[in-house]
Design brief:
This protein has one domain: NagB/RpiA/CoA transferase-like (Rossmann fold, 3-Layer(aba) Sandwich). The two termini are 20 Å apart. The radius of gyration is 16 Å and the shape is globular. The chain has five helices and 13 strands. A hairpin with a 4-residue loop joins strand 7 and strand 8. Strands 3-2-1-6-9-11-12-13 form an eight-stranded mixed beta sheet. It has 197 residues and is an alpha/beta fold.
Length: 197
């Protein structure tokens, strides 16, 4: 198995080979699958992320879902993520650390039903490997929500290296696959193209 560093380098190379407009088309295919998941359909409050150019594109989905749901976005604060509600493009600013769009306003302290998580790589056991700063692992441990990873097909591997502090996803969605972690909660799911491992 590749080390985390080798895997990050491999995925970085694969991402660079795909133009942004193709990433946006592929992202649309991922969202067509993800938006069919009942947890997302039924969610009242959903934490998404404002995508960078090398991630599954979220800008249009954030705006669309915000019409009917409470859509939340992370705000980087030192080594942690704070959560704020998306209230339109006029209430966004460039984040101080990475220049990623972040909502302004007060921190959100209510319940969250679903958290959609980006990552560098995922595997078929629903493990996630991030960029190495641990932002999401720390956040996910504090929230009882359905965790859904989104990734391009080339970010999906049979196995990724994990540490004890890494948080598993409940589900990972790519252009061609929707993979659920096998839990009692998911045991009775019978949906086309869904793999329950």
């Amino acid at each position: 198995m590749k080390t985390k560093q080798e895997l990050r380098q491999l995925v970085r190379t694969l991402k660079k080979a795909i133009p942004l407009d193709e990433k946006i088309i592929r992202s649309s295919e991922i969202w067509q699958r993800a938006l069919e998941i009942s947890y997302i359909k039924d969610a009242k409050a959903i934490l998404l992320y404002w995508s960078m150019d090398d991630e599954v594109f979220t800008h249009s989905v954030v705006q669309k879902l915000a019409e009917t749901k409470t859509v939340l976005l992370p705000v980087v604060d030192g080594d942690d993520l704070r959560i704020k509600q998306f209230r339109g493009l006029d209430n966004m600013r460039a984040g101080e650390q990475f220049g990623i769009g972040e909502p302004t306003g007060d921190d959100y302290t209510g319940d969250i039903d679903v958290i959609v998580v980006p990552g560098v790589a995922f595997d078929r056991q629903c493990n996630r490997m991030g960029r190495g700063r641990g932002f999401y692992d720390r956040l996910l441990k504090t929230r009882d929500a359905i965790k859904i990873g989104v990734a391009f097909d080339f970010q999906l591997f049979d196995s990724v290296p994990t540490e004890p502090f890494d948080v598993k996803m409940d589900c990972v969605v790519s252009e061609k696959e929707t993979i659920w972690q096998k839990t009692e909660q998911n045991q009775n799911l019978k949906i086309n193209n869904i793999h329950i491992i």
